[in-house]
Amino acid sequence: MEEEFSVTKQRAANIDEIDLGELLFELWLNKLEIILAMAFGAVAAFFLSTVIMTPKYTSQTSLYVLAKQEANTNANTITTADLSVGTQLTNDYQVLMTSRPVLEQTIAELGLDMTTEELADMVKVTNDSNTRILKIEVTNEDPQLARNIADTLRTAVSEQIISVMNIDAVNTVEDASMPLKPSSPNKKRNILIGLMAGFVLSAGLIVLRSIMDDTVKNSDDVERYLGVPVMGMIPDSESVDIAKEKR
What is the pTM for the complete model shown? Predict the structure, then answer.
């Protein structure tokens, strides 16, 4: 009984073994299927990026804020402490950038048919490390509207910063740019993702199909699954006929 259990256990272990070399060979045999899947993924990604997805444009503007200490009597002098304070307050400016009063003022001035939440989703505020320059990016389907929102938003937040933070002035570094090319969708990236998705899906299906296939194809499979040596092989009728014709 113990011997039979050991044999059965060995057979199960043999079945569960995955030969990496065989899997790679199986992938190579089905390389055409993989190539077709990758091509389909790339074409599908291109179609989605070109036809289905709506192109969006991003306009960028930036402003400069410097907070001066009240104790600084020389208005033309900027101390190290001033720079430190300005850097620390940059996060506060970023919060004010998408505050409700700023967004409502922008919507009112441009007559936009959207909520403050919808407008906030279009706005991205960034700050380069160790600087007091705030960059405002506005993304919209209409490039002209994206530019108008960015300029209006910059003006509105400048007034809000001066009012709330008691800053003397907020300087404009650059006006909002007119986007000439869409910022999204990124066709090259999407096509690459489509290629990779096609490869992963097709290779995964081929590997799964190979692992689930427990049919006996050759003498090695007999020894692996049944655990018995092969004493001999019977040729199929086609091999015999071919051999006779050669003779």
Answer: 0.64
- Of 111, 144, 174, the residue at which a domain comes to its end is 174
- Residue 40 lies in domain: 14-51+186-246
Q: Does 111 have pLDDT greater than 70?
A: yes
3-state secondary structure 105-173: HHHHHHCCCCCHHHHHHHEEEEECCCCCEEEEEEEECCHHHHHHHHHHHHHHHHHHHHHHHCCCCEEEE
Q: What is the pLDDT of residue 9?
A: 47
Q: Would you give the DSSP letter of residue 74?
A: -
- Evaluate whether 228 touches 14 at the Cβ level (below 8 Å): no
Q: Are residues 161 and 64 in the same domain?
A: yes
Are 71 and 169 contained in the same domain? yes
